[in-house]
Automatic annotation (TrEMBL):
This is histidine kinase. Pfam families: dCache_1, HATPase_c, HisKA, Response_reg. It comes from the Bacteria. The lineage of its organism: Bacteria, Pseudomonadati, Pseudomonadota, Gammaproteobacteria, Alteromonadales. Keywords: Cell membrane, Coiled coil, Membrane, Phosphoprotein, Transmembrane, Transmembrane helix, Two-component regulatory system. It comes from Alteromonas portus. The keyword Membrane applies. Its main location: membrane. The modification 4-aspartylphosphate is found at residue 867. GO terms for cellular component: plasma membrane. It is a multi-pass membrane protein. GO terms for molecular function: phosphorelay sensor kinase activity. It catalyses: ATP + protein L-histidine = ADP + protein N-phospho-L-histidine.
Length: 938
């Protein structure tokens, strides 16, 4: 359908989406604000913004009005409600089906430039008495609009915007703008959530403190008022009792006058006292002039007063409600009276005291500022009220429709304000005392805290924008340089421009540049090799002619050359082992960068295809490391540098762990790994557990690899201080003429096996070398198509003592630890610091041992991560100096992070004063476990 220049389409899918957006937005707008403010804190505007970008104005405008309905039903700024309602509507008309920049310009410009001044003007009319409330209210409403714009736009881009089709040409935006916008938006939303939660918790805490104070204070007031009234009632009762004991008329006169004067001097809160006979006639008064005044006013009789006839009828003391005094004065008073009894206990008159309501000022003055007290009698009339409540005595106290189950907050009855109120009934009288606090004072108290947090939110948003710009520049600049370099590349120019380099670069982009440079080098090299090959071909043709002329002479020369080459090969074979061992350090260093980078990337929320590639890189690097370790193991065996480490070991636990490692692979193929251990096998043996586990794992790996059905079993027995282990499978088997090859290095029974199943051909060679190193023997029995049995015997003595305790649960990293990293390689340093940063661990890096020693003397560190090979001063020397001269030399933990993986390297680290040794590449969890374990041993 098309109306004017705007068209729209209808479908049940769109209707369902619109219904969901309406329900979500209205529900979010109906939520209670997280804190009290003069502004509008709402969260449903984002749904309306999403609708304005997703649907045409004919549908999005009604959606925006429906979503804003709960907001209009609540209290708050009228201009703020209008602004939040019009934001998605304006965005719908001017931003629908428009570019990303247009949406931001329309939304941000309309919201900040047009309505922000209007909001400021409206709040200045109502909150001019408190600047904090004014600006915090404006900012709360503004933040609600920005939050709605950002979340709605982000939701639209994530759900629909990136895949939408448009008749216009594809929109292109700069990386600076895109990352700046997304960083600013994410910083804003995250900071807003934290700050709103902080403000909500702070306000809740403040309210709870006020509630607690009011609850305690109203109980104290009840206690004070009850004691106050009880004290004055007792004074009247004591006076009545004294008068009841007077025996003669003269005695009564003297006693009455004296006692009224005494009780008045001790109880100045009473305005007047009177004594009346059984007829209600006033016989005595204090001050004495009050009696003459009452007679002149024609009110010498009080028989009609409740404080008289109630006492005369009941013979008990009486406390009146508040009433207007007459005769003795016109002040609002409360009367306390008690009977004067004759010898038979019959009332023959009363004693009455008029208590001034101003007497409660002293109790009220003990309250903190902003808190007010209200005392009302059983008829609901005001006895006393604080000035802030603006209630006069004898007026009706406010009655709320929610009585008697009102909450803490009440409003509408007292000056049209919202009050916090706690009430308590007096135990001495049928009165009620209420304690009030103006909630606007709490809001004013909160506005200062809220304004600071909102200003912090704006600062964090600005920081997010700046961060996005910096990150975009870091990513975009090398990409643009590489694009220019590729555009200028000419294969025929050997001396062209070199790829530009920068001191600070991103690893992945740098790797891309390196790969292109490598490709360029290979391409140029291919041209050179082709040219050289042609020249060599011509030379070979010439040499062939010469060779044909002197074939016998050349054969003798070649024979001599072959003999010399054989000697050189034997010398190279001897040097090879030492070469491989020395290369371990250089290979493990870049491997640490690859594996560590993958681990750090996988810690983040990556797109699925990028995460899959990162996992592929990690697995490939791990496989490469396994191959490297295999080659190094063989190098150690050949060079005689593979040591033995005989210790007590639970053989059953070791074998069960090895079987469990390959059980899953076996079960996928439809069979299980059976472990059969004879009863005569001791629980604890003295063996090299690491090498035995490596051999068993190699044999089980081959067994599960070459067995597709049937079974794999491990049989274990012990006799004559020797351990026998057999790994039996029903796999493809080995031909008898190939059995002598399988224990050779880089050999397998069949070349096709390598292509089909994979493998380096070193596993069995290493296993055989390890078993022979332990003084044992490894042999094989196999039949093609029926299976293979590998068996090894090793000497193993029985160990005395209990079974070693299992390792306890993994320790956790302590909080607020400080780490010093000594590492000269920038890539490895970045990897380790990123690992530590992911756990919020503070880290300082130095590039050589001398700097590490100086840093340790200046600062307190818990852990030092020390590389061994560094310029100026190596890690061993630095560790020794720290242990001798360090600031925290006795308690600090030093952990070696080095590519030197041999046992002699580990011993050298420990001898230099280090606590632990970790060989590169470093796994994040292994590093954290080592740190936690060393710190727990303090």
């Amino acid at each position: 359908m098309k109306i004017g220049s705007i068209s729209f389409s209808f479908s049940w899918s769109s209707a369902l989406q619109a219904l969901v957006v309406c329900a979500l937005g209205a529900g979010l707008n109906a939520l209670e604000p997280p804190f009290d403010s003069s502004g509008i804190a709402t969260f449903g505007v984002g749904a309306a913004v999403y609708a304005s970008l997703r649907f045409s104005p004919f549908l999005s405008v009604p959606i925006a009005l429906i979503i804003s309905l709960p907001m209009w039903l609540s209290e708050g700024s009228i201009v703020g409600k209008e602004s939040l309602t019009l934001l998605p509507i304006v965005l719908s008309f001017f931003g629908y089906d428009k570019s990303l920049r247009q949406v931001i310009k329309v939304g941000a410009g309309f919201w900040s430039i047009v309505f922000l001044p209007v909001l400021l003007l409206e709040h200045s009319l109502y909150d001019s008495d408190n600047v904090n409330m004014l600006f915090s209210g404006v900012l709360v409403t503004w933040v609600s609009g920005v939050f709605g714009l950002v979340t709605g736009h982000f939701a639209y881009l994530a759900i629909y915007g990136l895949k939408r089709q448009t008749s216009n040409k594809s929109e292109r935006i700069s990386l600076h703008f895109l990352l700046g916008y997304f960083f600013a938006g994410c910083f804003f939303v995250a900071s807003m959530a934290v700050i709103y939660l902080s403000v909500s918790l702070f306000q809740h805490q403040q309210e709870q403190q006020i509630h607690s104070y009011m609850k305690q204070r109203v109980k104290v007031l009840e206690f004070q008022l009850s004691n106050f009234m009880r004290h004055h009632q007792n004074a009247i009762i004591s006076t009545a009792q004294v008068l009841s004991n007077a025996v003669s008329e003269n005695s009564v006169e003297r006693t009455t006058a004296a006692n009224l004067q005494i009780v008045a001097s001790h109880n100045p809160e009473f305005l007047t006292f009177l004594v009346a006979n059984e007829s209600g006639d006033i016989t005595h008064a204090y001050p004495p002039s009050m009696l003459e005044k009452a007679r002149k006013n024609g009110l010498p009789n009080v028989s009609y007063r409740p404080y008289f006839y109630e006492v005369m009828q009941s013979g008990a003391p009486f406390l009146s409600n508040v009433f207007q005094g007459r005769g003795f004065g016109n002040d609002p008073i409360v009367a306390l009276s008690a009977p004067i009894l004759d010898s038979n206990g019959v009332p023959r008159g009363i004693v009455e005291g008029s208590l001034s309501l101003k007497s409660f000022n002293a109790i009220d003055d003990l309250s903190l500022g902003g808190f007010s007290m209200l005392i009302e009698d059983q008829k609901g009339e005001v006895i006393y009220a604080s000035d802030a409540l603006a209630m006069q005595p004898l007026t009706k106290a406010p009655f709320y429709s929610c009585e008697p189950k009102c909450g803490v907050e009440v409003n509408g009855k007292t000056q049209g304000k919202t009050w916090l109120r706690f009430t308590e009934n007096l135990s001495f009288a049928n009165w009620k005392v209420s304690y009030y606090f103006d909630k606007r004072l709490l809001q004013a108290l909160m506005s200062s805290y809220l304004l600071k947090d909102l200003l912090l939110l704006l600062a964090l948003s600005a920081f997010g924008t700046f961060t996005g710009y910096v990150v975009a520049k870091m990513v975009g600049a090398p990409i643009r340089r590489l694009i220019r370099y590729i555009a200028d590349f000419e294969p025929n120019q050997k001396n062209g421009n070199k790829a530009p380099q920068r001191a600070l670069h991103i690893q992945e982009l740098s790797s891309l540049s390196d790969e292109f440079t490598s490709l360029e080098t290979r391409l140029l090299g291919a041209f050179d090799e082709l040219k050289k090959a042609r020249e060599i071909e011509q030379e070979l043709n010439k040499e062939l002619n010469v060779l044909n002329q002197s074939l016998e002479q050349r054969i003798e020369e070649k024979t001599e050359h072959l003999a010399l080459a054989l000697k050189e090969a034997e010398a190279a074979n001897v040097a090879k082992t030492q070469f491989l061992a020395n290369m371990s350090h250089e290979i493990r260093t870049p491997m640490n960068g690859i594996i560590g980078s993958c681990d750090l990337m996988l810690d983040n929320a990556l797109p699925e295809h990028i995460a899959a590639r990162a996992k592929t890189i990690s697995r490939s690097a791990t496989n490469l490391l396994i191959i490297l370790d295999s080659i190094l193991d063989w190098s150690k065996i050949e060079s005689g540098k593979m040591p033995c480490d005989i210790q007590r070991c639970d053989i059953r636990e070791l074998l069960q762990a090895s079987c469990e490692l390959y059980r899953y692979t076996a079960q996928i193929k439809g069979y299980d790994i059976a472990l059969n251990i004879s009863n005569n096998v001791p629980e604890i043996l003295n063996i090299d557990a690491g090498k035995i586990a490596q051999v068993v794992n190699n044999l089980l790996s081959n067994a599960t690899k070459f067995t597709n059905d049937g079974e794999v079993s491990v049989n274990v027995s012990y006799a004559h201080q020797g351990l026998k282990v057999s790994v039996i499978d029903t796999g493809i088997g080995i031909a008898s003429d190939k059995l002598h090859l399988i224990f050779e290095k880089f050999e397998q029974a069949d070349a096709s096996t390598t292509r089909h199943f994979g493998g380096t051909g070193l596993g069995l060679a290493i296993s055989k070398g390890l078993i022979e190193l332990l003084g044992g023997e490894l042999y094989v029995e196999s039949e093609l198509g029926k299976g293979t049995t590998f068996t090894f015997h090793i000497p193993a003595t029985v160990s005395q003592g209990d079974i070693p305790e299992r390792r306890s649960a993994l320790l956790s990293l302590p909080r607020n630890i400080r780490v010093l990293l000594a590492e000269d390689n920038d890539i490895n340093a970045d990897i380790v610091m990123e690992m530590l940063k992911s756990e919020n661990i503070k880290c300082l890096r130095t590039k050589n041992g001398q700097d590490a020693v100086n840093a340790e003397k200046k600062h307190d560190f818990d852990v030092v991560l020390m590389d061994c090979q560094m310029p100026i001063m190596d890690g061993h020397t630095a560790s020794s100096l720290i242990r001798k001269e360090g600031r925290n030399k006795d308690d600090i933990k030093i952990i070696a992070l080095t590519a030197n993986a041999f046992i002699e390297d580990k011993n050298a680290c420990l001898a230099a004063g280090m606590n632990a040794h970790l060989s590169k590449p470093i796994r994040k969890q292994v590093l954290f476990d080592c740190i936690a374990r060393e710190l727990a041993s303090v």
